[in-house]
Write a structure and sequence with these properties.
two-stranded antiparallel sheet; alpha/beta; Helix Hairpins; six-stranded parallel β-sheet; Histone, subunit A; Rossmann fold
Length: about 300
């Protein structure tokens, strides 16, 4: 089947934070009759809209937006969970004759959508609950030490501070008897790239590093000085979520938390958040350069 004969079109737009992805996706949606699907792990959470630079109500009114603010902050989201939610949304968009435009900065989400995922068996719910409780209560460091004892291969791969992935590795080996690495080495299946009826248009934003860093700095400053970032973190803290949850580690949350607790000044919180954002953008650029070098580059 040639590209012209494929019946389902999907547009992907990946890239680092603050690179202008959302505005570009919105323009494409209006031009092509598209609907936007979020592929950013933090924009999934309902508690964070300003700090994650989620599309505004005015922007969402211009075309349908999906998977923004969908989850509560105490619900960790794996690539598998996001992939399953995204596939359901994408199928619905296709059924209505529209074009799904998947946009975000979480590279593993795009990878799971295109290439599929290794078939890890279902995790025992009791084991999952026990692991999440222990990682939350004892901390990622203790969880990593436990992982080192029963699965040294994954312990060598994962950093001690990555509580979500450490917990995932623990629940997999305890539930299946095999390392997560064993399952990851099995060729993935179920990706859109395997389907003959789907035409995938892959795009990644590219921007001069100095310009991107300046945009990161300016955007965060505006979030705090002109937006509702402080109130957003204050409301988040009132929910008493476990500190190890991904939402509590979102860019700006730890730094503003320190300010609200009067540990640092507001300017220090802003500077530290800007630094963390630039570092995150650098890691994203590296990932997309290595993984998406063959994608169409959108220079912004």
């Amino acid at each position: 089947m040639t590209i012209s004969q494929k019946t389902k079109r999907i547009i992907l737009l990946a890239g680092p934070t603050a690179s202008g992805k959302s505005a570009t996706a919105l323009n494409w949606a209006q031009e092509y009759g598209g609907e936007i699907v979020n592929a950013d792990s933090m924009q999934l959470y309902g508690e964070l809209s300003h700090l994650t630079a989620r599309p505004t109500a005015e922007e969402e009114a211009l075309c349908p937006h999906h998977l923004y603010g969908t989850l509560k902050g105490d619900t960790p989201c794996s690539a598998e969970l996001w992939r399953d939610m995204a596939r359901a949304v994408i199928d619905d968009i296709w059924q209505r004759g529209a074009v799904p435009i998947v946009v975000g900065g979480t590279g593993l989400y795009f990878k799971s959508l295109i290439q599929g995922l290794s078939a890890v068996p279902e995790i025992d719910p009791q084991i999952r609950q026990e692991i999440r409780a222990s990682v939350t209560g004892d901390g990622a460091g203790a969880g990593h030490e436990r992982l080192r004892q029963i699965d040294p291969v994954m312990a060598e791969i994962l950093p001690p501070g990555d509580s979500q992935r450490v917990g995932r590795a623990l629940e997999v080996i305890l539930s299946t008897g095999k390392s997560l690495k064993y399952w990851q080495d099995i060729p993935p299946t179920g990706g859109l790239g395997d389907r003959d009826d789907v035409a995938i248009e892959q795009n990644v934003t590219v921007m001069d590093r100095a310009k991107l860093y300046e945009r990161c700095n300016r955007r965060f400053h505006i979030m705090v000085k002109e937006g509702n970032a402080l109130a957003e973190v204050r409301d988040l803290l009132a929910l008493n979520y476990a500190p190890a949850l991904p939402v509590m580690k979102s860019l700006g949350v730890p730094q503003i938390t320190r300010y609200l607790r009067e540990e640092i000044s507001l300017e220090e919180a802003i500077n530290l958040s800007q630094t963390a954002t630039r570092q995150f953008a650098k890691r994203q650029m590296t990932w997309f350069r290595n993984q998406c070098g063959h994608w169409n580059q959108i220079c912004l």
